[in-house]
Amino acid sequence: MRFLKFSSSFSLTFVSIVLLVLQACSPNNVTLQNEYKKYFDETATTGSFGLFDNGSGEFYIYNLAQFKDSSYVPFSTFEIVNALVGIETGRIVDDKMILSVDSAGPIRMDSAFKQTSTPYFMEVARRIGKDTMQHFLDSLQYGTKSMGSAIDSFWYNNKLVITPDEQLGLVKKLYFGQLPFQKRSQEMVKMLMLQTANTNYKLSYKTGFGYKQNGKAVGWIVGWIEENKHPYFFVLQTEGAANTDIKTASMTVFNKILKSQGFFEGKR
């Protein structure tokens, strides 16, 4: 589910042409934001970022090659799909469903999603089952669609990887109710992703953090921000040394990029 493929304005061929002619002209749709590099440098991370303005069709990208072609383990951003499948199949009754999955005691589904309770969603995946989960991975064309043998940890163990481009395609389709799930399932997950709502903006996202096989830390922030009822879709992917506080670094880069684009003031 590559965003740069399903958007009529952003075929990969077009983006390749943009790169070739960038020195000669200024394209209407794609703006390469090389200045974002300083935010990654300040946190000793590397990565990529994409922001799509749904109203104007403008796409702001840092590190285009990595954004569209480099794949990473989704970590807990996969809970978006896990929750959708769980709700769709009835394995998750509603956002208040309680499970006791670890020593921390009972936890509600909405809290498990926002707090990233991995044991909760491991149990949900076991209840869904491998065949059903594979069906939805195939239907969504989610990344490499690979599960391996572990139904309850494949989104952490390097069997399943996905590009930032594909992540953006997923959240955009979720926002508009275009995924192969019932409306109820998609609306419930959209509500779970809502993190901040005030008079200036609504910010919805899911994070994911973990480690690559080489030990490097990886971070994700995927979702959308709405100002004046206008959605902008984003994906941030970060990478740092094993000892990097990747969550703090990712949120720092994310907030600085959005502020630099004029968000959070309700003036977009």
What features would you describe in this structure?
The chain is 39% helix and 21% strand. With 268 residues, it is α+β, with helices and mostly antiparallel strands. It folds into two domains: 150 residues, 3-Layer(aba) Sandwich (Beta-lactamase), CATH 3.40.710; 89 residues, Beta-lactamase (3-Layer(aba) Sandwich), CATH 3.40.710. A hairpin with a 5-residue loop joins strand 4 and strand 5. The longest helix is centred in the C-terminal third of the chain and has 15 residues. The relative contact order is 0.17. About 9% of the residues have low confidence.
Q: Kindly identify the CATH topology of the largest domain.
A: Beta-lactamase
Name given to the CATH architecture of the largest domain:
3-Layer(aba) Sandwich
Q: Given the structure, what is the number of helices?
A: 11
Mean of residue pLDDT values:
90
Order of helices and strands: HHEHEEHHEEHHHHHEEEEH
Main sheet attributes: strand count, strand direction, barrel closure: 7 strands, mixed
CATH superfamily descriptor of the largest domain: DD-peptidase/beta-lactamase superfamily
Number of beta-strand segments: 9
> In whole angstroms, how far apart are the ends?
28 Å
What's the alpha carbon Rg, rounded to whole Å?
18 Å
Helix content: 25-40%
- Contiguous low-pLDDT stretches (5 residues minimum) are 5-27
Helix-strand makeup class: alpha+beta
Strand content: 15-25%
Strand order of the largest sheet: 1-3-2-9-8-7-6
Q: How would you sum up the global shape?
A: globular
